[in-house]
Amino acid sequence: MQDEPRDLHRQSHHGNPHPIEEPLTYLLDYGIDVSRRRIFLHGDVDEDTIAFAVRGLVHMSDVSNVPVEMVISSYGGSIDESFVLHDVMKAVRCPIHTVALGFCMSAAPFLVAAGDKRSASPNCDFMMHTASFEMEGSMANAATTTEAVRSRCERMDRLLASYSSMPYRHWKKFTDSPVDVYFDAKQAKEWGIVDEIWDLSVRTPNPVV
């Protein structure tokens, strides 16, 4: 027996999905513009920013299948929280258009690459590096935690390979590197993280503006 398709839409008492009707204007303070279907993911990728991004994304998906634009300008943060947002991006019914703006580092390039349509500003810089973590406890727990983090990094590298034009080993050398690895928007396009770079030479409409 096949599993039922996952649906993040809220169910009514009769079992039919319907839009969430609670007022969400306060989300503007957290970078969620519901009326224009935009999410501004600025700052750290952490529990708070991802929680608001997920809530806004699920709400907008409930309301309409019109694409949601996710503007990402982040120094990165938690790999665990990046997987939370990644999985919701892939589970909702509306397309997600990601925009890399200014700087996308650590876990942020992974989220940019996961979009259905991806673009970057021409002066956006990207950076990837090996994962780091802090913990307290026994040496045995430290060993199992290290292995768990390594496993999540490998999963991220394999997903990046599936979203880009570069193989798994290309991304693995970045997440295995002892130093931060930087690249620009042109390289991000060549490697398939983004599909297009804004043209600022003419006043044609670009994402966000």
Written description of the protein model:
The protein is of the alpha/beta class and 209 residues long. It has a domain at 25-130 and 178-193: 2-enoyl-CoA Hydratase, Chain A, domain 1. The protein contains six helices and eight strands; from the N terminus they run E-E-H-E-H-E-H-E-E-H-H-E-H-E. Strands 1, 2, 3, 4, 5, 6, 7 and 8 form an eight-stranded mixed beta sheet that branches. Strand 4, helix 3 (108-113) and strand 5 form a beta-alpha-beta unit. Helix 1 (47-63) packs parallel to helix 2 and helix 4 packs antiparallel against helix 5 (168-175). It is globular. Mean pLDDT is 83; it is low at 1-22.
In short:
This protein is an alpha/beta fold and 209 residues long.
Terminal Cα span: 48 Å
In CATH, the architecture of the domain at 25-130 and 178-193 is: Alpha-Beta Complex
Within CATH, the superfamily of the domain at 25-130 and 178-193 carries the name 2-enoyl-CoA Hydratase, Chain A, domain 1
SS elements, strand count: 8
Shape: globular
Low-confidence stretches: 1-22
Q: Could you spell the SSE succession in H and E letters?
A: EEHEHEHEEHHEHE
- Describe the biggest sheet? 8 strands, mixed
* Helical fraction: 25-40%
Question: Remind me, CATH topology of the domain at 25-130 and 178-193?
Answer: 2-enoyl-CoA Hydratase, Chain A, domain 1
Beta-strand content estimate: 15-25%
Spell out the key features of this protein:
209 residues, alpha/beta, 2-enoyl-CoA Hydratase, Chain A, domain 1, globular
